[in-house]
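Ligand-bound model needed. magnesium ion.
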Amino acid sequence: MENAAGKEILASFGWDNATLNTITSGLINHTWKLHTDSGDYILQRINTTVFKRPDLIDENLNRIASWLKVHAPGYLFTAPVKNKEGLSLIQVEGAAYRAFEFQQHTHTIAVVADAKEAFEAAKQFALFTQQLEEFPADQLHITLPDFHNLALRFNQFETALRNNNEERFVNAAATAHTLYQMKAIVSRYNQYIAHPDARKRVMHHDTKISNVLFNDAGRGVCVIDLDTVMPGYLFSDPGDMFRTYLPPVSEEETDLDRIHIRKPVLEAIEAGYLDTLKHQLSSFESANFYLSGEILIYMQALRFLTDYLENDRYYGEKYPDQNLVRAKNQLRLLELYRETIR
Ligand code: GN1
Ligand code: MG
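Prediction:
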């Protein structure tokens, strides 16, 4: 950010004297916290290898923000702020940047500590979809095509297996075999999306706890990280909550014995999410609430293992075999999850 492009971006907002601190969480975008003469902001460089059309994200967020202003003016939606030229997306040298107001007296949480945090986060994601119940979801662009398409993720996994990256294939074989044998989850996913009561809604699609802002009293304030806000099915959001809130350790944990399902957290997700949305959901969506966890945990295990077989081209690796470790972690979680919900 110390280069000419960085200075140009900051200047376009009138933040010439900003001080920047890098925020290191998140695998995809690059994020800084800014302290400027006109307040504190979050600045992000969008990963345009992943999000090929940042302009579509920008349009989505502005559309939702305008709609909420009219229909739910009290709802806190962290839309990108506009620079001096009125732009909320700034494209310089092939990179795309945007900024958000920093919400004072809030913080994020990396790993769910207890049921209360899970409840608060689940409730925030439920409120998000609830506020946008009447918003025409089909007016939103698809910012990441097929993002939660499990059938496609499975096909990509099969392709990666067939392409036979020999050295990695040997290491991945046992995990790949077990995952392959679980492919009935793909059929259940296909039945789900074909069902007439599986409605397309405005979904967040990245419901990890770090995408919720908490206030000093530990209450949820709002959801953030809105790049993947798009039309989707209900399974996406609770699914990724089950995946990321239930175990006391993250997908990075290498000691698989530390992974277990925290029942009180499971109940808190149900209380925070399902109870908040229950009047909006079809009985089909409610009845398949727990299937969403199977879909998302399975999908993430497939994605990590596929990436491992493809030499980490998507997620990268910080140490050898990291994506294999992540895949094993997610597989263990899936097995425990299935035992719990059975
Ligand atoms: C990515 O960038 P981050 O950490 O918010 C990924 C999610 C995965 C997650 C796994 C756009 O999210 O789908 O669940 O990593 N986002 C994208 O850690 O691929
Ligand atoms: Mg994210």
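The chain has a mean pLDDT of 95.
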